[in-house]
Design brief:
This protein is α/β, with parallel strands linked by helices and about 325 residues long. The protein has helices at about 35-40, 60-75, 105-115, 130-135, 155-160, 170-175, 190-200, 215-225, 240-245, 255-265, 280-285, 305-310, 325-330, and strands spanning about 5-10, 45-50, 85-90, 120-125, 140-145, 165, 205-210, 230-235, 270-275, 290-295, 315. Strand 10 (about 290-295), helix 12 (about 305-310) and strand 11 form a beta-alpha-beta unit.
């Protein structure tokens, strides 16, 4: 039976990228990397595939690049995280070698040596070359925003990754979401599902939004929303509605990807999609006992009159200070 694998980029994905990083004193594992790897290790074999052109540029030797990578793996091993193998391309981009990403030589070699099913595997990295590598090898891909900066949202989206994650833990959560997609329900199922839950005496809580690039602020609002009742139904704006009320450049992640990711939260019982710019028609069908909103919308949010009309109430969650999708994206966009 073939194994599944995740091929990780190194600098900017697992450890901080200090530009041609090779000195062990500069080894700094990125926040949330360890819990992400612990979440995935039982289902996937791990590999590192890294371009290290600093070797041919004369900045450090191949031996130094290997020692740094080995030190990284030894540090991760302290948390009981093992990698099968690491692959290093030492060549200059102008050499047109066979091993520099996005060429798939190393993934094909790993596939043969370790019996890896590439179609069921992933590439995770912070650069376009990682995403193109995945396409050439026939794997799925995730772009993490913990490394290089980009010139625009369009550049990030144009890379064509299967998912865009704030960090490696969020990437791991997306991969794990394949186990929970049964929570996703269509619009025409909602009335029946809610009726069944109400017949059991359960209090219905609703929450809506784009939930595009997730961060700890989203975790907080979901946890607090779930605490307001028994059943939490999250409604996501469709791609078209987000483009209408936010920006033509958003969302970064498609509606199918966002549905999948939202289903992985333990607090969420059901997740659905709505195409309107407001959730009013949807809430008319659900008539929630509690509707939850962030503090930027307030008690007098657009949903309040409809919810209160049917005896429900609005619950406001105070947002995490300084944490927003817009702020996170702004930190990754550097105009060239």
């Amino acid at each position: 039976m073939s194994a599944r694998a995740i091929f990780f980029d190194r600098d900017g994905t697992l450890n901080r990228d200090h530009a041609f990083t090779y000195q062990i004193k500069d080894l700094e594992i990125i926040e949330n990397v360890v819990p992400a790897l612990q979440k995935l290790k039982s289902d996937y074999d791990f590999f590192i595939v890294t371009n290290q052109s600093g070797v041919k540029r004369g900045l450090f030797s191949l031996e130094e690049a290997e020692k740094f990578t080995s030190a990284l793996l030894e540090e991760l091993k302290k948390s009981k995280i093992d990698f099968k193998k690491f692959y290093i391309c030492p060549h200059h981009p102008n050499e047109n070698c066979e091993c520099r990403k996005p060429k798939a030589k190393f993934l094909l070699e790993a596939s043969k040596e370790f019996q890896i099913d590439l179609k069921s595997s992933w590439v995770i990295g912070d650069r376009g070359s990682d995403i193109e590598l995945a396409k050439r090898a026939g794997t799925s891909s995730i772009l993490v925003l913990t490394g290089v900066n980009f010139s625009s949202l369009q550049e990030i989206k144009s890379l064509g990754s299967d998912y865009i994650a704030a960090d490696l833990l969020e990437a791991a959560n997306f991969i794990e979401a394949e186990k929970t997609i049964s929570k996703i329900i269509s619009r025409d199922q909602i009335s029946k599902v809610i009726q069944q839950e109400r017949s059991k005496g359960r209090k219905i809580v609703t929450l809506n939004g784009s939930f595009d690039l997730l961060h700890e602020g989203h975790q907080k609002i979901l946890a607090e929303a779930k605490a307001q009742g028994d059943i939490l139904l999250v409604a996501l704006n469709s791609d078209a509605s987000i483009q209408t009320y936010k920006s033509p450049d958003r969302p970064l992640n498609s509606e199918n990807s966002r549905l999948r990711r939202m289903s992985a939260f333990s607090e969420v019982d059901y997740v659905t999609l709505f195409s309107e710019t407001t959730p009013l028609d949807l809430l008319e069908d659900i008539r929630p006992d509690v509707h939850v909103n962030g503090s930027e919308y307030g008690e007098n949010c657009i949903e309040a009159p409809l919810v209160k009309k049917y005896g429900g109430r609005i619950h406001i969650v105070k947002l995490v200070e300084g944490r927003s999708t817009s702020a996170l994206l702004q930190s990754k966009i550097h105009k060239k």
